[in-house]
Amino acid sequence: MTVVLAGAYLAVVQLRVLPGAVPIAAAIVGSLLVVLWTTALTRMGRRVSAEVSDGEHFDRQVVPIFQNVWTAVVLGGGGFLLLSLWNVNVTPLLASAGVLGIVVGLAARDTIANFFGSIALYFDGTYKVGDYIVLESGERGRVEDISIRSTVIRTRDDIFVTVPNSVLNTATIVNESTPRRDRRVRIEVGVAYGTDMDLVEETLLAIAADEDLVESHPNPRVRFRRFGDSSLEVELLCWIDAPVLRGRATHHLNRAVYDRFREVGIEIPFPQREVSVSLADDAIASSLTRPAADGPRTDGHATDAGD
């Protein structure tokens, strides 16, 4: 089609059949070429976006950004060329477009902030689809989708939470999936004073070795953390394959710790408080325990004070 239009244009110009019609013919042919190439470039951008989104080494979150920016650039350039072909003075239009851009920018500042927030999040590599993140509000979940406007997170209760990208761009986000996919699990437990700590450590390591969700590398370890008010505080540290398994692994390990400690005789104490009372003076102690010397008369006779 491009060759046909170019041939028609050259025929009109070279043959000079209608000299006065040459500028109009050139504008018509040029307009058709602009429309043709604008349509072709727009479709090409969509096709490229669809192809690269199916690849393994390209993040799908950038596809809508690339596609929208590409479409806006192509359409804007095509419109500018059309006006130039028909000798339209674009200076007033550019000035009006500038004013209109300011008005639109003020009216849609949240949308624009979300758009640039999505770009910043992508280039910063803060997170991607499939990562487990923790927000400042405490919500934790899997990133399901990242669009130009917002990010969708699926919580552990299977609830979808939509957060604007402009908010995430300025918030503190904990990405539990980076720099490595596996996740550390901490199991805290207290044992009674006087317990054999070697037995405690051996038992906890055996529990971690028997749990299928716990990885063998890095090796599980046990740490004696502190002397508590009622117990000796120890902690089992181990790794699981993915953050999504943390709740299930914690459940299995806690049950195993309770059952295994009962089997081997390791006591998990209740919180205790010892209260000691010391009486400084025996006289005070005897006065507290001695019945009152002067009590009310019960013989029915009135006293002098009562007469």
Q: How does this model look, in words?
A:
The protein is of the alpha+beta class and 307 residues long. It has 3 domains: 106 residues, no CATH class; 52 residues, SH3 type barrels; 82 residues, Alpha-Beta Plaits. Helices cover 48% and strands 16% of the residues.
Keywords:
Alpha-Beta Plaits; 48% helix; SH3 type barrels; 3 domains; single chain; 9 helices; 8 strands; alpha+beta; five-stranded antiparallel sheet; disordered C terminus; 307 residues; three-stranded antiparallel sheet
Task: Report low-confidence residues grouped into runs of 5 or more.
Answer: 300-307
Strand tally is 8
Mean pLDDT: 80
Give the DSSP E fraction (strand runs of 2 or more residues): 15-25%
For the CA atoms, what is the radius of gyration?
A: 40 Å
Task: Note the total helix count.
Answer: 9
Q: Name the helix and strand elements from N-terminus to C-terminus, one letter apiece.
A: HHHHHEEEEHEEHEEHH
Q: What spatial form do the alpha-carbon principal axes imply?
A: elongated
Q: What is the gist of this entry?
A:
The protein has nine helices and eight strands. By secondary structure, the chain is an alpha+beta fold.
Q: Which helices and strands, and how do they pair?
A:
Blueprint: H1 2-15, H2 22-53, H3 63-85, H4 91-107, H5 109-124, E1 132-134, E2 140-146, E3 150-155, E4 160-164, H6 165-169, E5 174-175, E6 183-191, H7 197-210, E7 221-227, E8 232-240, H8 246-264, H9 282-289
Helix pairs in contact: 1-2, 2-3, 7-8
